[in-house]
Amino acid sequence: MGLGRSMFADHYPVFKKHPALFKVVAACDLLKERRDIVAQDFPDCRMFRQFADMLDERDIDLVDIATCSVDHVKHAMMSLKKGFWTLLETPMALTPDDAQILRGQAIKSKNRLLVLQRGLFAPDFLLAKQMMSDPRLGRIHQIRIRREDYVRRDDWQCVKRLGGGAAYYAMTDLIIQALRLLPTPPVQLWSELKRIASLGDAEDYAHVNLKTRDLVSADVEFNGGCLPSERSASFELRGERGVFKVQPGAQTGTLTVIDPNFSFPRRRSSVRTPQIRDMHEEFPVQTVSVSLARDTMHGPSAFWKHVYDTIRTAAPFPLQLEDSIESIKFSHLMKKTSPFGK
Q1: How far is it, in rounded angstroms, from Cα 178 to Cα 174?
Q2: Which residues contact 39 (CB under 8 A, 6 or more apart)?
Q3: Cα angle 324, 326, 328; round to 5
Q4: Peptide bond into 91 cis (omega under 30)
Q5: Phi, psi (5° rounding) for residue 68?
Q6: Helix or strand (DSSP H, E) at 324
Q7: pTM beyond 0.85
Q8: What string of H, E and C letters represents the secondary structure of 149-180?
Q9: Could you read off the pLDDT tens digit of each residue along the chain, which spans 342 residues?
C-alpha cells in the first residue's frame, strides 16, 4: 500500500531479490503508472486504487504500508482489523496517544504489527553496538550519532500539516539507535529544530541530547543541509581512554586509544600553589581498524529475513513495538517543545 519513493527504494527491491521469501500478490496506489511498475515484475498481481478493496483479498500474508505519515495509523488499523500481519513505515504515528491506540489494536490482532526501523540493521550501528563493550575504550561517557545530507526537499515530507519534518522521518530511527546504545534509560532531554535547505515549512535539521542518571550522554543530530566536505562519522563513542569512529554504512571503523598495556604513574591532586610547568603527560596511543563480526546479518535483507521468520516460524522479532512507541514520545516532545516544530 503506497507505491512511492520509500516503497520502491527500500521495500520493493527486497521482494524482487528474494522470490523464495516474498511474492507481491496485490498492490494499491491512486496512480496507474505506479501500479504498472509492479505489474511488469509480478504479472499475476492484482491492482487496486482503494485500500479497503485490497484488504478484501484473502491471499495475503503481510500488508506492507508506506503511505503519508498522517495516514499511517488509519491504514495500519484497517489492516490489523482484517487480521493481517502489518508492516508499517516509520514513523508508526505522530503522537504518543495515537501510537498507544495502534498498540491496543495490535494486541487485539495477536501482535501482528511490525514497524520498519532501518537504523537497527545498519552495519555502522551494529559495529558501534559491538564496540560499546570494548574494554580498550574504558568507561564511555558520550555517544555521538550523525546522519547528514544536503537535499532541497520539495515533497510532503517537508510539509508540517502532512506530518513531515526530520523529527519524524529521520529522528525516530536515530533515537532508537541511541536508546539501544545507552547503558541506562535517559532522564534528561534537550533539543532544537531548524529548517536549512528544505523547500517546505517543516524542519530538515533536528538535534537532541539525551542524558542518563550516570551522566552518559547521547548527542544525536540529523542535518539535511550539510555539505559533503563537512560530514562527520555516523557513530562516535568517546571513552576515558580513547574514541571509536565509523563512517555511514561502513562495516569497519577506527579505534584510537591509549595503549591498553600502559598505566599512568600514580599521583594525587594538590591544593598547594601549582608548579610552573606543563601538566601534559606523554603516553603511547594506538590506532587500529575494527570490523563488524563476520557472521552479523545487516542491511535491508537482514530486516526482511526477520520479518519472514516472524510470520512463518513465529521467531521473535528483534524490535519490540514499545521501542518504536518510545521513539515517538521523544520525537513528539521535540516537536512540542520547539517553536519551529509547532
Answers
A1: 6
A2: 27, 45, 47
A3: 70
A4: yes
A5: -60, 145
A6: helix 321-337
A7: yes
A8: CECCCCCHHHCHHHCCCHHHHCHHHHHHHHHH
A9: 999 999 999 999 999 999 999 999 999 999 999 999 999 999 999 999 999 999 999 899 999 999 999 999 999 999 999 999 999 999 999 999 999 999 999 999 999 999 999 999 999 999 999 999 999 999 999 999 999 999 999 999 999 999 999 999 999 999 999 999 999 999 999 999 999 999 999 999 999 999 999 999 999 999 999 999 999 999 999 999 999 999 999 999 999 999 999 999 998 888 888 888 888 889 999 999 999 998 899 999 999 999 999 999 999 999 999 999 999 999 999 999 888 766
Residues 6+ apart with CB under 8 A from 119: 125, 173, 174, 176, 177
Report the chain's terminal Cα–Cα distance, integer Å: 29
| CB-CB neighbours of 46 under 10 Å | 17
DSSP-derived 3-state class of residue 76: helix
Angle between helices 72-81 and 96-108 (to 10 degrees): 10
Q: Return the DSSP state at 109.
A: T
Looking up cell 575504550 gives 137
Cell numbers at residue 129, please?
A: 553496538
Residue 304: name the closest of 64, 5, 78, 66 by CA: 64
Place of cell 594525587: 268
C-alpha to C-alpha distances, 164 to 127, 143, 178, 193, 224, nearest whole angstrom: 30, 27, 22, 13, 13
Angstrom distance (rounded) from CA 75 to CA 66? 9
**Contact call for residues 258 and 284 (beta carbons, < 8 A):** yes
Q: Long-range contacts made by residues 303-312, C-beta under 8 angstroms, separation at least 24?
A: 303/116, 303/118, 303/120, 303/121, 304/14, 304/18, 304/21, 304/22, 305/21, 307/62, 307/87, 307/114, 308/21, 308/22, 310/114, 311/61, 311/62, 311/85
In the three-class reduction of DSSP (H, G, I as helix; E, B as strand; rest coil), residue 230 is classed as helix
